[in-house]
Specification:
Order of helices and strands: EHEHHHHHEEHEEHEHEHH
Low-confidence stretches: 310-324
Strand content: 5-15%
Helix content: 25-40%
Mean pLDDT: 89
Shape: globular
Length: 331
């Protein structure tokens, strides 16, 4: 199926816009509703992007943008999403076959309810102009990350991008097994650099703090945090080395929560809602835009580390984050 060409919100006005910006939407599970609030602030600040890259949960927001959903519409669709649509049991046929099972759940809810509600449309993604999209998936057979261009995206690639091992089954496409790429990387800085980015605008929702918690689920999350941050820091080190001889240097801007976001179970069971996450994203983006330095932040581990006191999971109350209007002097 084909769709009419369209220019999404946040898309650059032309190929020669300077600086050439890349919007990097990292993963973070269902909590990436946070990124919708960030996108509203970026749009209000007049920022445009020649490239948008998504990994894991971040692929959903890149898919929404390239489908022609505006940041304001993104917020509304996240607010009205039935979050439990993400959780779908395997089919009866799969259960009757007996163990081992492909995963604890199926992808039917994502395919049939989540993506349609969010406005994700692969044909519209392929027809987007003014902004190039890339969607990261893991080619399990080769154990490599693959950045699939928006012009080649289909529903299977989008589902694979959020198919986390154990929780969701792998996706078979053209004889290749694809899964969520989070264990390789949670953001693809290298792809943005290869596509000529002068500025990297990273929206980070994964934890980076020194509190090691007890419990199987908490330590599973810690493994993702270690893998995601470690891969990011290696890529930032490569950019830092390249900047020694590059003029102008590549600059990094990071919008991140001031304190850890509630985990997916908190969202699933109503201890936090999308409206709160969106407001937190808008507030944090406004804070960064109002106070940021044109040269961005250092290309090192301090880019994502949290200095705010780490609270217990679930401590953020519903709709307790207050979003503020923000301006930006760097338009």
């Amino acid at each position: 199926m084909t769709a009419a060409a369209h220019r999404p919100a946040l898309a650059a006005d032309g190929d020669h816009d300077s600086p050439r910006r890349s919007l990097l939407l990292a993963g973070g599970g269902m909590r990436v509703a946070y990124q919708a609030g960030v996108c509203v602030a970026l749009q209000d600040a007049g920022l445009t992007f020649a490239h948008a890259d998504g990994t894991s949960g971040g692929t959903m927001n890149v898919a929404m943008l390239l489908s022609g959903i505006t940041p304001a519409q993104m917020c509304e669709r996240w607010r009205t999403l039935a979050v439990r649509s993400f959780a779908t049991l395997p089919s009866l046929r799969t259960l009757l076959r007996g163990p081992p099972y492909p995963a604890l759940g199926s992808s039917d809810g994502i395919r049939e309810r989540v993506f349609p509600h969010l406005g994700v449309d692969p044909a519209r993604i392929r027809a987007a102009q003014g902004i190039t999209g890339t969607f990261n998936v893991c080619d399990y057979g080769r154990k490599v990350n693959v950045a699939v261009p928006g012009q080649e995206v289909d529903l299977d690639i989008l589902v694979a991008g959020v198919s986390l091992p154990i929780l969701s089954p792998a996706v078979q496409r053209d004889g290749t097994t694809y899964v969520d790429s989070v264990w390789i990387k949670d953001v693809n800085v290298g792809e943005a650099v290869r596509r000529g980015a002068d500025e990297l605008w990273l929206v980070w929702a994964i934890g980076n703090h020194g509190v090691y918690r007890d419990g199987v689920f908490q330590q599973y999350v810690h493994m993702i945090e270690m893998s995601s941050n470690g891969a990011l820091f290696e890529e930032l080190a490569a950019v830092r080395a390249a900047n020694v001889t590059r003029t102008p240097p590549i600059r990094l801007h990071v919008v991140r929560p001031r304190a850890p976001l509630p985990l997916d179970p908190d969202f699933m069971f109503g201890r936090v809602d999308a409206a709160t996450l969106i407001a937190m994203g808008h507030r944090d983006a406004c804070d960064y835009l109002d106070a940021h330095h044109p040269d961005g932040v250092a290309l090192g581990p301090e880019a994502t580390v949290w200095t705010t006191h780490v609270q217990a999971s679930g401590s953020v109350r519903r709709s307790s984050a207050r979003s503020s209007r923000c301006g930006w002097a760097g338009r």
